[in-house]
Design goal:
This is GIY-YIG domain-containing protein. It comes from Coilia grayii. By secondary structure, the chain is of the alpha/beta class. It has eight helices and ten strands. The strands form four sheets. A three-stranded mixed β-sheet has the order 1-2-3, with no helix packed on it. A three-stranded antiparallel β-sheet has the order 9-8-10. A hairpin with a 6-residue loop joins strand 5 and strand 6. The longest helix has 15 residues. The structure holds zinc ion (2 copies). The site of one zinc ion has 7 residues, from helix 7.
């Protein structure tokens, strides 16, 4: 697969699993790069040959099946029935939470159901910031949602232009974060099997940025990162 990630050259990355044929593949690609260059458009898009990046190939360990016993513990009504975004009821950011069980793609009006319980204290959350004029920003946090939200508000107050919403608030809303709202989109749950929860969080953030077209106005995201899928 080709990635838009660049390192030191302007070419794409060719990402593949390491194998005994790896160096042959690299050679074939480099020696045939002139085919790409024979096309004027492709020559402009891909001025340099790709940098080859190898992923670790599956090991015996990966192929062995882990023991898995389903969680038979009786869950409380809290876990069973509460899903959606809620205020925690005891923090200063509650007023900025949009309580909801579903959320909309603001372009298509398609409705999505929140996949679990999210409140100010939830961790590993993909969230959406919303301003009064309809602009939005998709973000994620592995810390408590209220901690990350507080950073966004502080960035607005201090005109920190590293934060796209802060830039927007300086231009349109007089750097006053009191109107900023936040909504939970997805919570990454711990699984019985474990696994890389942070990686899944990053993947889901990328998914929602892509799905909501958050890099196009009124979306305010400035970048999308496909590396979590490599
Ligand atoms: Zn709260
Ligand atoms: Zn706005």
């Amino acid at each position: 697969m080709f990635s838009v990630q660049n390192r030191n050259n302007n070419g794409p990355c060719f990402v593949t699993q390491f194998s005994s044929c790896a160096s042959k593949m690299k050679h074939i690609m480099r020696s045939n790069w002139k085919i790409i260059h024979s096309d004027p458009l492709l020559r402009e898009v891909f001025p340099d040959p790709p940098m080859t990046v190898f992923k670790r190939a599956p090991s015996i360990k990966d192929k062995l099946v882990k023991s898995f016993l389903p969680d038979t513990k009786e869950r409380s009504w809290l876990h069973k029935d509460l899903w959606g975004t809620y205020k925690c009821g005891s923090c200063k950011h509650c007023e900025s939470i949009i309580p909801c069980k579903t959320f909309l793609d603001l372009r298509t009006q398609k409705e999505y159901k929140t996949n679990g319980f999210i409140n100010c204290n939830s961790e590993y959350v993909v969230y959406r910031l919303l301003c009064p004029c309809g602009c939005f920003y998709v973000g994620r946090t592995k810390r408590k949602l209220k901690e990350r939200f507080s950073e966004h508000k502080y960035a607005i107050q201090t005109n920190n232009e590293d934060y796209p919403m802060a830039k927007h608030y300086r231009e349109i809303h007089h750097s006053d974060p009191s109107s900023l709202k936040v909504q939970g989109i997805e919570v990454i749950k711990k699984t019985v099997r474990g696994g890389d929860r942070l990686k899944r969080l990053l993947q889901r953030e990328t998914f929602w940025i892509w799905s909501f077209k958050a890099m196009e106005y009124p979306g305010l995201n400035e970048e999308i990162d496909y590396r979590p899928f490599l």
